[in-house]
Write a sequence for this structure.
C-alpha cells in the first residue's frame, strides 16, 4: 500500500480563543480529487493553510507523503484565492508562472532553458500562451485563475491545493480548469480543492471532506454526502448553489 | 573657487548614492504597503542621532548614522510589538511611534542647543537636510553601505520578489518569510538613515515613496520598476542639490520638490496608466460608432 498523500492527526486551531478547527482526523490517499466542503466560517481555508504549514496548528500533526512538510515542500503546490492577490503588482503572466520554479532554482541562479520550457508548457496547458507578456491585471477572472494553476503546474508537485478556484470564474473556464485537474489526477497527482458548490460535487470530485469546525466525514463523495451529514454540516440549511 | 566646485561635486556624489538607494528600496516599501513605515523610521531616527552625539560628542557621520539606525530599528520593532500584542492597529501604532520618538528627539535637540556644546549647531540640519560640507569619508561610507544593500537585493532577488508579491505562497516554497521581511525592513532602515543627512528627518519618506510611485506608472515589471525608481531617485536628488546650492535654499525640501515633479509628470502622461492617456482612450472609445 502506498503512503497517503496527506495524513491529518488530531489537528486543532483557534483564533482569539474561538476554535476554528477542532480535533480533525483524516487520511487522504494519493491520486484522488478531493473537495473540502462546509459552510462559511467552517475553517476550510484554515485547514488548507494548516496543511501547507502557513498556520501552525495549536495541537496535532500533519504528514505529507509520510513525512513532515519541511521535507516535502516542493511536492505540494498552492493556488491561493484570487482576492488575496495584489493584481496591481508589477509582474507579467510569465513572471508569475516562473515563480513556481523558484523552489527549484535556489538563490543565485537564473532560470535555465528547462525552466523556461516548463513555463511555456504550463502556459500552453492552461491556454494562455499568447498572454505571456501581459500584465496580470489585463486578464479576465478566469484567465487570472489559470495563471496560478500554471504556476502550480511548473512546480512539478505531487499534491495540488486550490483555495476556491471557481469563484468569479465563468462556466467555460470552470470546465477547462476541471479538465486540467482531472488530467493531473490521471497522472497520479492528488488534488485538494476548497469548494462550495454542492451541485457540481459529484461531477467533479471523487472524494469529499465535510467540515464545520469539526470533521463531519471524509471519504468517497457518495458516502460522505448524505442528507444527514449535510444537515450536520449546514445546520439544516443548504449551501448556496 | 575650486573648493566650491569640489564641495558641490562631493555633494552631488552623495546625493546620487542616497537617491539610488532610496529609490530602489522604496519600491519594496511601496509594494509591501509599508510607505508609512519609512516616515515613522525617519522620525524615530532623530533621538538616536541626538543621543549618539550627546554620548560621544562626535559629529563623525558613522557615529550619528549608527545612532539613526539603532533608533529607527527600535521604532520599527516597537510598531510591530504594539500592533501584535495590543488591539491598536498598525497605522495607529506607526503614528504613535513617529510622534513620540520625534518629540523625544526634539526635546534632546533643544536641550543640546541650550548647553551650547561646540559643534551642536550642525544637528539642526538633520531636520531639513543639508549637503554642505559632506566629506569624502562620508561618501565612502555611503558608497559601501549602498553597494552592500544593492548586492543584498540582487542576491536575494527571487525570494524577495515572491515574498513581496505573495508571502503565503513564498512560505509554501520553503522561503523563510519572516527572515526575508526582517531583511527588507532592515535595509529600509539603513537606506533611510543614509538619506537623513541629505533630505532631513521630516521629508525623508517622500524620497522613498515618490520614485517608486513614478516608476510604477511607466512599467509593468518589477525589475525595470526598481531600476527606473533608482534612476529617478538619483536624478531628483542631484537636481535638488544643484538647485539648492545655486539658489541657497534648504536641500531637503528642494529635493522633495524635484522628485514631486517626476511624480506629477508620471501620473499625468505615462502610457496606459497616466491620466491624460486614460482620458484620451476614453474619448476614442466614446467616439467609436
Amino acid at each position: 500500500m502506498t503512503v497517503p498523500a496527506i495524513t491529518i492527526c488530531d489537528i486543532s486551531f483557534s483564533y482569539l480563543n474561538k476554535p476554528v478547527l477542532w480535533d480533525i482526523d483524516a487520511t487522504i490517499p494519493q491520486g484522488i480529487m478531493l473537495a473540502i466542503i462546509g459552510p462559511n466560517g467552517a475553517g476550510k481555508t484554515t485547514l488548507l493553510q494548516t496543511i501547507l504549514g502557513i498556520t501552525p496548528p495549536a495541537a496535532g500533526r500533519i504528514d505529507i507523503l509520510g513525512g513532515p512538510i519541511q521535507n516535502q515542500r516542493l511536492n505540494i503546490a498552492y493556488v491561493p484565492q484570487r482576492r488575496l492577490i495584489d493584481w496591481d503588482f508589477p509582474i507579467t503572466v510569465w513572471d508569475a508562472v516562473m515563480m513556481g520554479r523558484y523552489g527549484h532554482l535556489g538563490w543565485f541562479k537564473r532560470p535555465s532553458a528547462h525552466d523556461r520550457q516548463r513555463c511555456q508548457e504550463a502556459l500552453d496547458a492552461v491556454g494562455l500562451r499568447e498572454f505571456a507578456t501581459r500584465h496580470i491585471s489585463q486578464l479576465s477572472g478566469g484567465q487570472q485563475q489559470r495563471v496560478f494553476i500554471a504556476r502550480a503546474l511548473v512546480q512539478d508537485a505531487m499534491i495540488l491545493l486550490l483555495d476556491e478556484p471557481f469563484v468569479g470564474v465563468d462556466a467555460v473556464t470552470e470546465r477547462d480548469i476541471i479538465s486540467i485537474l482531472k488530467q493531473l489526477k490521471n497522472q497520479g497527482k492528488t488534488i485538494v480543492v476548497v469548494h462550495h458548490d454542492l451541485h457540481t460535487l459529484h461531477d467533479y470530485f471523487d472524494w469529499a471532506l465535510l467540515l464545520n469546525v469539526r470533521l463531519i466525514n471524509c471519504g468517497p463523495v457518495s458516502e460522505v454526502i448524505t442528507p444527514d451529514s449535510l444537515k450536520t454540516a449546514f445546520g439544516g440549511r443548504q449551501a448556496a448553489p | 573657487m575650486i573648493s566650491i566646485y569640489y564641495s558641490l561635486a562631493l555633494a552631488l556624489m552623495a546625493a546620487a548614492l542616497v537617491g539610488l538607494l532610496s529609490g530602489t528600496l522604496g519600491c519594496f516599501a511601496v509594494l509591501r504597503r509599508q510607505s508609512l513605515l519609512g516616515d515613522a523610521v525617519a522620525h524615530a531616527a532623530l533621538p538616536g542621532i541626538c543621543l549618539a552625539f550627546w554620548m560621544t560628542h562626535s559629529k563623525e557621520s558613522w557615529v550619528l548614522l549608527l545612532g539613526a539606525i539603532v533608533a529607527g530599528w527600535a521604532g520599527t520593532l516597537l510598531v510591530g510589538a504594539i500592533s501584535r500584542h495590543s488591539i491598536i492597529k498598525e497605522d495607529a501604532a506607526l503614528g504613535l511611534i513617529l510622534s513620540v520618538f520625534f518629540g523625544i528627539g526634539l526635546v534632546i535637540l533643544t536641550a543640546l542647543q541650550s548647553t551650547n556644546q561646540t559643534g551642536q549647531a550642525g544637528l539642526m540640519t538633520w531636520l531639513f537636510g543639508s549637503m554642505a560640507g559632506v566629506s569624502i569619508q562620508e561618501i565612502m561610507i555611503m558608497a559601501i553601505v549602498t553597494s552592500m544593500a544593492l548586492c543584498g537585493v540582487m542576491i536575494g532577488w527571487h525570494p524577495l520578489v515572491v515574498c513581496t508579491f505573495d508571502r503565503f505562497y513564498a512560505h509554501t516554497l520553503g522561503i523563510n518569510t519572516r527572515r526575508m521581511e526582517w531583511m527588507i525592513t532592515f535595509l529600509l532602515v539603513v537606506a533611510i538613515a543614509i538619506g537623513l543627512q541629505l533630505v532631513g528627518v521630516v521629508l525623508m519618506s517622500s524620497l522613498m515613496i515618490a520614485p517608486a510611485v513614478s516608476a510604477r506608472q511607466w512599467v509593468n515589471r518589477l525589475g525595470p520598476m526598481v531600476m527606473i525608481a533608482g534612476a529617478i531617485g538619483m536624478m531628483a536628488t542631484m537636481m535638488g542639490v544643484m538647485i539648492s546650492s545655486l539658489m541657497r535654499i534648504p536641500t531637503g525640501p528642494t529635493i522633495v520638490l524635484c522628485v514631486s515633479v517626476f511624480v506629477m509628470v508620471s501620473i499625468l502622461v505615462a502610457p496606459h496608466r497616466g491620466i491624460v492617456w486614460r482620458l484620451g482612450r476614453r474619448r476614442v472609445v466614446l467616439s467609436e460608432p
Summary: Residues 149 and 168 of chain A are 15 Å apart (CA to CA). The radius of gyration of chain A is 18 Å.
